[in-house]
Write a sequence for this structure.
């Protein structure tokens, strides 16, 4: 029964920072001012423990707070919902795995340890073992007995292009496949609502993937390989057609359903703005569903999506405030 | 300007001929240097126009915009993701500075040996910034090459100008003066010789008359 979880999420949702507060934070004069404004919120507790307040330490605080919220929601769920949330939180695993694999290409991986530490309890994957792997191939070998074992199939692509993208996107494909499977056990209404929310996420990822050959000279063959084979509002044949596009003008008619997301990429080469527009779509959809399904499990998923966007917004404000740069225009509100 | 016949200057007809030949040679050199100066001035003007055109493309604004995009991208994905993305870029920018001769002036010419490969490597957000940075660096290299070329040409123009002025105002007039002084001296010598001959001739004719 989702009632307990949904009621808890209703309570937690009141702690989400409203648009006005986010705008006020975005107008902070400096990082100290920003931290002072945040201190009466849920983030205040962790921030008081900081010795040095800067964008880097605040980024860790926002991440830890987000993980704490995820853990809280996961603990309040049961049955099929718990299984779904377990699959949903694998997105954090996928992000961590991508980072680990990337640093395995060159650098020592000490920098990402704090992130992995705070994820304990939310993931059953031994990420610390991955950190000790000698190289990418041995790190992928360690995934053999996990749900990510199919990723090993992309090692040939990794070798051919000397790129981490095939492995990263295979991780994503595995993730979304697991999510869709976990969704099957949810009630019909929830399945449809969560599907719509995740559909935007996957569609946007595919839009960003397929424009790479025409905008950045990526290989069309590789880009086709990176497409996540789940589509919501996009037409699969048109998506593949974009990878063969000869000019940016040919792209827009093929991705018409995400015009507002793709336009900044094609016209201003501004992927951040594209991402903001995509997050706004997710935000709009999540808010709509929270109103429509206020007593269903979908409410909890939408709440988690909002938490993730809030974390992204706060991290963005922290870094840009530290650099004395304008934040407005890049916030998903 | 008073040129004095120096120690090496011999007031002889042979030396005068040698000196005249040297003056002709210097004057030819002067004309060539003048041509070089004009050509260098043309080159400088053309390069300055090219630089102005490049700067008109608002390079500074572009740099600012790309740096801003980097800051936004960094803030958007966070430090951990960005540093892991950067870690996966292989290679660095390797340049070779080759000498190229423009009218005998060695000018540095930049040749990109190897560029860090970002295509097919980076994920969303960071790839667009990396792409713009690569393009910006190429533009900056072009401007650096052009500025260096302008600097070298301007230096050479200044040197050539000084040489032309020195030849025009000092060397050639001095040589001409020396030639004139030698000619005067030779004329004087000839006149002396003529008068001496006439005097001797009159002495001889007077002696013949008394005898």
């Amino acid at each position: 029964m989702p009632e307990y979880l949904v009621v808890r999420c209703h309570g937690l949702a009141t702690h989400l920072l409203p648009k006005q507060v986010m705008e006020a934070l975005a107008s902070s004069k400096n990082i100290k001012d920003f931290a002072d404004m945040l201190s009466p919120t849920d983030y205040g507790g962790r921030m008081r423990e900081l010795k040095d307040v800067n964008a880097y330490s605040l980024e860790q605080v926002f991440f830890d707070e987000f993980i704490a919220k995820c853990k809280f929601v996961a603990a309040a769920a049961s049955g099929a919902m718990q299984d779904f949330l377990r699959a949903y939180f694998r997105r954090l695993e996928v992000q961590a795995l991508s980072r680990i694999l990337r640093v395995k290409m060159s650098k020592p991986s000490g920098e990402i340890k704090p992130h992995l530490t705070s994820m304990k309890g939310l993931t059953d994957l031994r990420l610390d073992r991955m950190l000790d792997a000698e190289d990418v191939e041995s790190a992928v070998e360690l995934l053999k007995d996990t749900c990510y074992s199919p990723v090993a199939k992309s090692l040939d692509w990794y070798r051919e292009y000397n790129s981490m993208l095939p492995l990263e996107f295979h991780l994503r494909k595995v993730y979304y496949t697991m999510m869709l499977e976990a969704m099957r056990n949810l009630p019909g209404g929830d399945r449809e609502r969560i599907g719509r929310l995740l559909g935007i996420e996957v569609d946007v990822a595919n839009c960003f993937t397929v424009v790479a050959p025409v905008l950045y000279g990526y290989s069309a063959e590789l880009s086709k390989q990176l497409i996540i084979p789940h589509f919501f509002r996009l037409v699969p044949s048109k998506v593949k057609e974009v990878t063969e596009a000869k000019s940016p003008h040919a792209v827009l008619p093929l991705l018409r359903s995400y015009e507002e997301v793709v336009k900044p990429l094609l016209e201003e080469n501004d992927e951040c703005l594209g991402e903001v527009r995509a997050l706004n779509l997710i935000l709009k959809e999540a808010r709509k569903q929270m109103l429509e399904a206020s007593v269903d499990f979908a409410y909890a998923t939408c709440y988690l999506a909002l938490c993730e966007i809030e974390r992204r917004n706060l991290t963005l404000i922290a870094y840009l405030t530290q650099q004395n740069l304008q934040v407005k225009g890049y916030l998903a509100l | 300007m008073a040129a004095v016949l120096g120690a090496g200057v011999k007031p002889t007809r042979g030396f005068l001929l040698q000196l005249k030949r040297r003056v002709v040679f210097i004057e030819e050199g002067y004309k060539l240097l003048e041509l070089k100066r004009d050509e260098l001035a043309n080159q400088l003007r053309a390069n300055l126009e090219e630089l102005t055109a490049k700067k008109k493309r608002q390079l500074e604004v572009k740099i600012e915009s790309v740096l801003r995009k980097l800051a936004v991208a960094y803030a958007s994905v966070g430090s951990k993701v960005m540093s892991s993305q950067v870690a996966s870029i292989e290679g660095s920018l390797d340049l070779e500075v080759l000498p190229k001769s423009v009218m005998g002036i060695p000018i540095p010419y930049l040749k990109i040996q190897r560029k860090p490969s970002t295509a097919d490597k980076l994920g969303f957000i960071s790839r667009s910034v990396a792409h713009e940075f690569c393009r910006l660096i190429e533009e900056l290299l072009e401007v650096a090459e052009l500025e260096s070329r302008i600097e070298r040409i301007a230096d050479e123009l200044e040197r050539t100008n000084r040489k032309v002025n020195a030849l025009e105002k000092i060397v050639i007039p001095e040589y001409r003066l020396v030639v004139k002084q030698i000619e005067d001296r030779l004329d004087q010598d000839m006149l002396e010789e003529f008068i001496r001959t006439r005097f001797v001739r009159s002495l001889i004719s007077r002696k013949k008359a008394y005898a």
